[in-house]
């Protein structure tokens, strides 16, 4: 019964998710025809908002769009990646012509070059002009179209910043040219490559050889990931590869976890506010989006500051939280905590009283702040009583 209920819920969820998809026919001068595209906007998308979203372009949108859509929804639900605009290109019978390539170089040729131009000069500008997009774009391709998406790397400023290559069937000298190109990047690029132990032998072997070379590249501009899945075929590896690829590309976007805390935060030599600010500046730099620091992350770095008796970090974190949200009690609470730890109880009392006039947070509510005030008042009463006893003696 439970199994049937779970299946029913999944079906209803998928039906609801896909029903929100926008279907459009996009006229193309490059192709001299129209092309069907699928667009899924974030659930909370507001065209009047200042919030911008990364763009994920799904080649082979006939069958890859839905798996990508499901995976993105799953990972955004758990705050593992940012909400994104997903665009699927329906290729159908045109797939052969879209991916047509030069036998020697593996680069787009004739009809393939026209499709290349359609994506770069018509589709991407259309999405940017009509939706709230950030500068961060992801290209996803499988098999032949995974070979195709690499062609966008061979420009001074690639239009995609991340490439998810699922079992790419590298053509001509594409693999060799690719390793050379990725070693001489001017801009940051995320490059994900996947195969499986049961993949097509010729494809698998070329991917293994390519990954071996890419792992040796000495460049700060390339972030390279490689996975070889177990037990999956050339087609069933798609879902697993998508999950791993999105997880790795957006790794820095995730909230602070225990691994990062142990390996980076605890060993950080500067003040902890510097660490968290630098972390979020990298998120903005990579993905072109502004993500606020969560209360949970503030709490984690404050806990570490207390653990290492780092009162300077505690004070700075309070100021940072106030700067991010002046209406929240969080920053003022941390400043009160800082004053209290310094033994400046009168100053701490003023901060706690001020925090009571601000908005509550999930953890720092008014009752909790009142309890902190009462502790200080009780402490002050005890100090006064001791002073009176000393005077009497």
TrEMBL record:
GO terms for molecular function: hydrolase activity. Pfam families: Esterase. It comes from the Bacteria. The keyword Signal applies. It comes from Psychroserpens ponticola. This is Alpha/beta hydrolase-fold protein. Residues 1-19 form the signal peptide. Keywords: Hydrolase, Signal. Gene3D superfamilies: alpha/beta hydrolase, Tetratricopeptide repeat domain. The keyword Hydrolase applies. SUPFAM superfamilies: alpha/beta-Hydrolases (SSF53474), TPR-like (SSF48452).
